[in-house]
Write a structure and sequence with these properties.
Layout (H helix, E strand, L loop, with lengths): L4 E6 L2 E6 L10 H16 L5 E6 L16 H4 L2 H20 L4 E5 L2 E3 L1 H8 L2 E4 L4 E3 L13 H9 L1 H10 L2 E2 L1 H7 L4 E2 L3 H13 L3 H10 L6 H16 L2 H11 L12
Parallel strand pairs: 2-3, 3-4, 4-6, 5-7, 6-9
Antiparallel strand pairs: 1-2, 7-8
């Protein structure tokens, strides 16, 4: 089904791997189509409770494959280019918009749009060789895939501008110190999967609605109104009832689930 991407599910965890290690997992147009399809598969699968996004080999995603980048201004119209860029942006859009929580396992370079894919996940685990870089200015481009919107909300405007306007590297230590990464791990995929399992094993509706509630653009009153609706959904959720019973009885909860 996929050529540039691997899609695997194990006990409720979907793992999506950008599988082009020969080019540091840089993407071509086919890769973007497959990433969007894999994310839709995960979002629409009731047996998937958390998602891990990673890259094969020594990288996470080195951004766009320069061998697949034509002289856009000569070979594409503005409308054609907008369609291509929309597909890249939609990877970020899906990661942020899906109810399924996601974690990026960043074992190596995450450059340009690859950095944005990692930032769009709900959490990140970085390895010792990880590099997060919004390097668009180095090649005369703007962060058109979401980085200029995501990074200020994650680390603050001033720090974000430092990285966006210079293309400087965010090291593993920086990522942890800034709160961009939950941890640095020798095996980021194993640690990211463990983090995903932790989210998977909680009441699913509560996790999904909590993700939906976190919106820096929403006013406090809007938050309270939305929280009331979500809380009522959770109050009527069988997994909430089982979680309360298990807590009272000092045992692990047992949810009625069919894992993908």
């Amino acid at each position: 089904m996929y050529e540039d991407v691997r899609y695997e599910t194990t006990r409720g965890i979907a793992t999506i791997t950008i599988d082009r290690p020969e080019v540091y997992d840089a993407f071509r147009r086919q890769t973007i189509l497959e990433l969007n399809a894999a994310l839709r598969d995960a979002a629409e699968d009731d047996g998937v409770y958390a998602l891990v996004l990673t890259g094969a080999g020594d990288a996470f995603c080195a951004g766009a494959d320069v061998n697949d980048m034509p002289d856009w201004h000569e070979t594409m119209t503005k409308e054609e280019y907008a369609g291509y860029l929309w597909g890249v942006q939609n990877v970020v859009r899906q990661l942020r918009g899906m109810a399924t929580p996601s974690v990026a396992a960043v074992g190596g370079p995450a450059i340009g749009a690859g950095c944005d894919f990692a930032l769009a996940c709900d959490a990140r685990v970085v390895g010792p060789e990880a590099v997060l870089r919004e390097g668009f200015v180095h090649v005369g481009l703007v962060p058109g895939d979401g980085g200029g919107w995501l990074l200020p909300r994650l680390v603050g405007e001033s720090k974000a501008k430092e990285y966006l306007l210079t293309g400087r590297d965010i090291t593993p230590e920086d990522a942890v110190d800034l709160g961009l990464a939950v941890e640095e791990a020798d095996d980021p995929l194993a640690s990211a999967t463990a983090f995903a399992e932790e989210m998977r094993d909680l009441p699913a509706l509560a996790v999904q609605h909590t993700k939906r509630l976190v919106d820096p653009q929403r006013s406090f009153e809007e938050y309270c109104e939305r929280a009331m609706e979500y809380q009522w959904d959770c109050v009527n959720d069988p997994e909430h009832h089982e979680a309360v019973d298990a807590f009272s009885e000092r045992r692990d909860p047992e949810y009625d689930r069919d894992y993908a």
